[in-house]
Automatic annotation (TrEMBL):
It comes from Symbiobacterium thermophilum (strain DSM 24528 / JCM 14929 / IAM 14863 / T). GO terms for molecular function: ATP binding; ATP hydrolysis activity. This is ABC transporter ATP-binding protein. Residues 2-219 form the ABC transporter domain. Belongs to the ABC transporter superfamily. Keywords: ATP-binding, Nucleotide-binding, Transport.
Length: 219
């Protein structure tokens, strides 16, 4: 589903990713774990085709997401850092707007709201929602086109435990439907609870990649 081969990414003189090799199989959930600045968001941006690597190869569903974004974006849903939502619009207006961009109908909006338990929020302005509700709606936006691959950037960052738990349940529902998930987190407990494998990044380098239990056994 995903393969990174010797991927290096730079912002000017800053090396954000340094020779990273990583594979993700279809149906698998991979966690990217690491402190702030480790390179998690950068890795997700490369997968989402939002930037090209400085060196190396990125392949998502057999496609280079930077050079052929249209071939992957229809099959991939992204929950970006922040939410990517418009605060002044209602939840329904936000989703209708994005559905329009994807060329999707109203039924896709309803389906995504139902799948994320956000239907009761339809008439609310996004700016008036709690952080947890907002993340839920951001997830609804990410699954509008029922993508095979979900890219989630710190989906529960800053949420209280109850809100995080309900978001985890939605992610589990997606996993149960066979979706591939790549999620960034700085919380070991979270990746342990949700992920088949965890890739640990430290200052742009991949320092370990294994099942959570195997990683814990080593420390
Ligand atoms: P994480 O998501 O793990 O916090 P990032 O991928 O955001 O890490 O950042 C990795 C490194 O790249 C950090 O040193 C960060 O300061 C740097 N970086 C990220 N985005 C930019 C940018 N747009 N311009 C310059 N440096 C950046
Ligand atoms: P299948 O995997 O055979 O399509 P599912 O039970 O996964 O069956 O889905 C049935 C229908 O419901 C599909 O058409 C799918 O588009 C829709 N659906 C279910 N859950 C979601 C979701 N989380 N996001 C978007 N669409 C969904």
């Amino acid at each position: 589903m995903i393969s990174l081969t010797q991927v290096t990414m730079r912002y000017g003189g800053t090396v954000a990713l340094d020779g990273v090799d990583l594979q993700v199989a279809a149906g698998e959930t991979l966690g990217l774990l690491g402190p702030n600045g480790a390179g998690k968001t950068t890795a997700l941006r490369l997968l989402a085709g939002m930037a090209p690597p400085f060196r190396g190869r990125v392949s998502v569903m057999g496609v280079d997401p930077w050079s052929e974004p249209d071939r992957v974006r229809t099959r991939m849903g992204v929950l970006p850092e922040g939410t990517g939502l418009f605060d002044r619009l209602t939840v329904g207006e936000n989703l209708a707007l994005f559905a329009g961009l994807y060329g999707l109908g109203r039924e896709s909006v309803q389906r995504a709201l139902d799948a994320t338990g956000a239907a009761h929020l339809t008439g609310r302005r996004v700016g008036s929602l709690s952080k947890g509700e907002r993340q839920r709606v951001a997830l609804a936006r990410a699954v509008l086109h029922d993508p095979e691959l979900l890219i989630l950037d710190e989906p529960t960052s800053g949420l209280d435990p109850a809100a995080a738990a309900s978001l985890h349940q939605i992610i589990r529902d997606m996993q149960a439907r066979g979706r591939t998930v790549v999620l960034a987190s700085h919380d070991m407990a979270e990746v342990e609870a949700l992920c088949d494998r965890v890739a640990i990044l430290d200052r742009g380098r991949l320092v370990a990649c294994d099942a959570p239990a195997a990683l814990k056994a080593r420390h």
